[in-house]
Amino acid sequence: MGSFLRILSYGVAAMLRHFTEHPASVGETYFEHLRFASRTGLTMLIGGCACFVHGLMPFLCITTGSRTIRALAARLGGAQARHQTALRLVSLPTEDRDGGLDRPAVVESLNSSAL
């Protein structure tokens, strides 16, 4: 009975790891990732339906498909940039303290390039 519980607890831990590993890799909790992915999928479905309607009746939903694609691209690109920014750390050399890379304008440009 003890080995069965050990195997069961290992299985549960492995299963939970599958649910949290990918969301953590993109800087989200499971529920944040669920909300983001669900909203993205629903937006794709609505945009796809609008494209289908437009195909049948070209005078309807004229810009809905392309507008949806642009919005999704911006949203997904923003998520990718947030993920990359979270992973990127800018370190400045300590020997350049007198007017080198630590000047406020240079530091700002280094930080802005990650956006």
Fraction in beta strands:
under 5%
Helix content: over 70%
Structural class: mainly alpha
Shape: elongated
**DSSP strand count:** 0
Radius of gyration: 23 Å
- H/I helix tally: 4
Unreliable residue runs:
103-115
Largest sheet: none
Q: What letter string, H or E per element, gives the SSE order?
A: HHHH
Instruction: Estimate the mean pLDDT confidence.
Output: 76
Report the end-to-end length measured between terminal Cα atoms: 54 Å
Give an account of the 3D structure:
The structure is a single chain. It contains 4 helices and no strands. It is mainly alpha-helical. It has a domain of 76 residues. Helix 2 packs antiparallel against helix 3.
Q: How does the SSE layout of this entry go?
A:
Blueprint: H1 2-25, H2 30-56, H3 64-87, H4 104-112
Helix pairs in contact: 2-3
How would you sum up this structure in a few lines?
With 115 residues, this protein is mostly helical. The protein has a domain at 27-89 and 103-115. The chain contains four helices and no strands.
Name the features.
115 residues; mainly alpha; 4 helices; 73% helix; disordered C terminus
